Structure formats: C-alpha cells, structure tokens
Amino acid sequence: MRIVRRGMAPTRDDSTRSALTIAQQQLDDTARAMGLPDSTRRFLRELKRELVVHFPVEMDDGSFRVFTGFRVQHNIARGPAKGGLRYHPRVTLDDVRALAMYMTWKSAVVDLPFGGAKGGVICDPKALSLTELERMTRRFTTEISIIIGPDRDIPAPDLGTGPDVMAWIMDTLSMHAGYSVAASVTGKPTAIGGSEGRYGATGRGLVIVTQLAMRDHGMDATGATVAVQGFGKVGAVTAELLAAAGMKVVAVSDSSGGVHRDTGLDVSALRALKDEGGRLADYGAADRISNDELLTLDVDVLVPAALEAQISGSLAQRMRARLIAEGANAPIDPEADAVLAEQGTVVVPDILANAGGIIVSYFEWVQDLQAYFWAAGEVNARLKEVMVRSYEHVRARAQELDVTMRSAAYQIAVERVAAASEVRGIYP
Ligand code: NAD
Q1: Which of 16, 285, 320, 331 is 20 to 30 A removed from 362 (C-alpha atoms)?
Q2: Is residue 324 part of a domain?
Q3: pLDDT at residue 14 above 60?
Q4: Per-residue pLDDT averaged across 78-87, rounded?
C-alpha cells in the first residue's frame, strides 16, 4: 500500500478555531470529495437538538452550588442517539457539539443502528466527594431526562465518568419510570445489566486495528515501541494489551505528567499505581517526560488517548511515530493531519480506531433489551468481527480512492448517514 495519501484539506491555524468549526470543516471536505448534494451537507453540518441545563446541588457542608451541563444530539436518522457523558472542568457546549457529530460518524462507520450524541457537566469530579458526585449526577440525569431514554438517546462513560456514574443514571431513570430501565445507559456494572467486556472494549478494539494497520504497513509487532498519552479507561487498557501482544511500551502519561523508559515500562505496575489512586508522576522507576516530549518520541506506535486537539501542525512537524492510532476523539487537528499525511505517517482515525466502546455499548443495549446476556468470549469475538470488517472496509476504500484512512472512514460514514436521511425524506 502506498503511504502518502490525500487527506482532508490543510487549513489555517486550527488553534484559533472552535472544535465545532473543525468538525464542520471535516464534513464539508468530505462532502466535496464525495460530491454530496449541498442540501444534505447543510443539513448534516447542524446539530439536531441541544439542551443546556443549570441546576443546584447540595454540597456535603450544607451549601449548594449551581452546575451547568449539556446534552446534544447531532443526528438520529439511523437510530437512537448514542454518546458519552463527560465530567471535566473545561468542557464546553462547543466541544460537546463537535463530539456529538463525531459520534454520528463513528456509529455509521462501524455500521451500528445509532445516531450521535454527547453530553457533559462542567465540574472537576476529583474535587467532589462521592456523595456530591452522586447528587450531581442524579439531578443532571433528571434535568436531561426529557430527551434521553432507551429508544431516544443512550448515554455512556467518557472522560471523568465510569460505571458508578452510569449506575446512578440508570437508577434515577428507573425511579422516574417506576421499573428498571437497564437499556437507558451503557457502561453500567454487570450487576445491573452491564455487558461483559465493556470496560476494556475501546482499548481492545484499538489494539485490533493497530495490529491490522501494522501488518498492512510491514511493521513487526514483536518489540515494536509504543507511547500512550492518557492513562485512563482507554489508554491504560490499550497499553496493557499492546504490551501483552509483545510490544514495548516505552512512555505513558496522565494529567500529572509522563514517564519514560527506553527498555520498556512495567505497565501492570503503573496500572496498579493508578488503581490505588496514585499519579504517574509519583512512579519512581522511570524518567519523567513532558507531554510534548512523549508525543514527539521516535516510536513505532503512538496512541493519543487523553483529550482533543493535542497535536497541532507545528508539533506534527516534530513527530517521529510511524503509526498513530487515535484513542481520543479528534486529538490531531486538521493542519497536523495534513502534515502527517505529507510525512507518510499512518493514522488510524478516531471514528474507526476508538469505536470498540460504542460497539460493545451496542451489544450491551441489545442484551438489555432482550434480557439475555452473553459471555465475555462472545462479546470479544463479536467486537473483533466488527472491528476487522470495518477496518478492511475503510482500508479498501482508502486504497480505491488513494486517500487517507481518515478521508475514507468519513466518506463511508457520511454516505450511510446521508442515505438514511435521504430515504426518510423531509417531514412533513
Ligand atoms: P479517562 O477519564 O478514563 O482517562 C483520561 C486520561 O487522560 C487520564 O489518565 C487523565 O489523567 C489523562 N489526561 C488528561 N489530560 C491529560 C493531558 N493533558 N496529558 C496527558 N494525559 C492527560 O477517559 P477515557 O474514557 O480513557 O477517555 C480518553 C479519551 O478517549 C477521551 O478523549 C474520550 O472522549 C475518548 N474515548 C473514550 C471512550 C471510552 O470508551 N471511554 C471511547 C471512545 C473515545
């Protein structure tokens, strides 16, 4: 396979542009490349529904604070909206809009019967007690309950949220309904209808496509060097599974900073440190490394699995990784994407690379609706089947059109969503 491919159009300085503007630009570029009717493009670049809520929560000391949260649905032409909930101090409506749009494309590229949504609350979950977090989650759930539900919009974990938050959401919605509504969220504990294999699904899927891309580009997995930015639900599992596959994880980072060791890190020890509530910065058996240093390491595989917009055009010029598998959503801005395509860096795009989470979320939703649960082996086998099929489809399209995998993935996704929207027609 030739490596240098036409990607999405390079743009002006992306650091000054909003996440939504970038997401819309990506759609515009895709629409132009595939000759999408302009009316369809204009429809798809808007968000269907946006809810902003401000709500009070009682703190443990008896005072109350007012929080702001969002739930945004981009498109529901192919099925109920689906997407994560983010608890982060800097989450904005603009970010949530862009992320909702990415969720539509992600569901479509792996051919799930879902649309795209995203939500979040502006808060620092680490600064809240467990009881404050629960009260905030239950009140936020109540506020957005007017637009979410198992047939309408199904939340899932994202940055700063996990199974405990999902359990509170499920319980709150069930209390309102008067019966258990297991299919109302995914990423729940298995005790209340969560799926086996959901926690590690995004990392597992990412490792599957990384190995396929390495195979296609003649890269030997054994001993291949890896750097992972972000050591949470996606990053830590990915690092562990890549190490288990015989690769050498030489650097990882979290919000406290990064650690680096040329001979390879003990990923299990780092995971244990995090599970005990520690920070990577406290790990003594490796050198400290900055975020930029980690991203520009000379490694075979780089996995950005922290936040959006981590790799700018100027940073990309200094990057030396041969393959980048995007664990986070939109970690590479379009200007950087163009630089990387020009440099011949293989990029497995977010909407494909990190789709494992939504795929197993879909399996969880299906199991809840049927009240019939699958063993972990079955979940993982079905995940692999969908990831491999989707990867091969994207790769074949990239080869056929001589474009990057990102362009190919977007074209497949937009084609499917446009087809569903067009065949449904305009109501009334
Ligand atoms: P998480 O909260 O479990 O972990 C995030 C990690 O990133 C933490 O280790 C945090 O310390 C670290 N981090 C934050 N800022 C950082 C910085 N500036 N530099 C280095 N590390 C930093 O979140 P997650 O669920 O692992 O999600 C990570 C990314 O993957 C997000 O962009 C999310 O949208 C995306 N994603 C998650 C899933 C999923 O199933 N959880 C699925 C698809 C995409």
Answers
A1: 331
A2: yes
A3: no
A4: 98
Mean pLDDT of the chain: 95
Mutation pick for ligand 1 pocket among 109, 255, 274 (CB with most ligand atoms within 8 Å)? 255
From 233, 303, 352, 363, the mutation candidate for ligand 1 (largest count of ligand atoms within 8 A of CB) is: 233
Q: Tell me the CB-side half-sphere exposure of residue 31, using CA atoms within 13 A.
A: 19
Q: Which residues are part of the catalytic machinery?
A: 118
When pLDDT is averaged across residues 384-390 and rounded to a whole number, the result is 98
In this structure, are 223 and 177 located in the same domain? no
Pick the closest to residue 407 from 11, 109, 8 (CA basis). Answer: 8
Instruction: Indicate whether 144 and 207 sit together in one domain.
Output: no
CA of 419 from ligand 1 middle (Å) equals: 32
C-alpha separations of 326 from 14, 24, 230, 235 in Å: 18, 19, 11, 10
In a domain, 192, yes or no: no
Looking from the CA of residue 161, the nearest atom of ligand 1 is 2
Same domain, 127 and 251: no
- 3 state SS of 155: strand
What's this model's pTM, rounded to 2 decimal places? Answer: 0.95
Residue bearing tokens 């069930």: 174
Confidence of residue 17 (pLDDT cuts 50, 70, 90): confident
Position 356 in a domain: no
Domain end: 314, 348, 382, which one? 348
Q: Is the CB of 33 under 6 A from ligand 1?
A: no
